[in-house]
Amino acid sequence: MENNNLADQDIKIDSNSDVEFGLEYNPVMSFHDPEGNEVGNIDIRSNELTFSGNMDESAKKFFELLKEIFDPWIKDQLEKK
0.70 exceeded by the pTM? Predict the structure, then answer.
């Protein structure tokens, strides 16, 4: 069965450091096309944000993820009114 959840497929978080109190967390966020090819990534491991790859495709994937996350919340808020 195919997983169509963008949160599981298109954005992956990777950390090269331990996540404990007092330690820095330096993730890399990667964006992938439907075939699994990386189209871009955001990297803050060097304490500054850098981007590499296809900005338009990466932005599309990022906003698709935000929509998937926030649409249920917005719907819930509207139903409460």
Answer: no
Tokens representing residue 40 in the block: 């871009």
Closest Cα to residue 68, out of 11, 5, 15, 24?
5
Q: Using DSSP, state whether 22 is helix, strand or coil.
A: coil
DSSP 28-79: EEEEE-TTS-EEEEEE-TTSS-EEEE-HHHHHHHHHHHHHHHHHHHHHHHHH
Q: What whole-number distance in Å separates Cα of residue 76 and Cα of residue 65? A: 18
| Residues 6 and 68 sit within 8 Å (Cβ to Cβ) | yes
In the chain, the N- to C-terminal Cα span, in Å, equals 37
Write the pLDDT tens digit of every residue in 24-48.
565 888 888 889 999 999 998 887 8
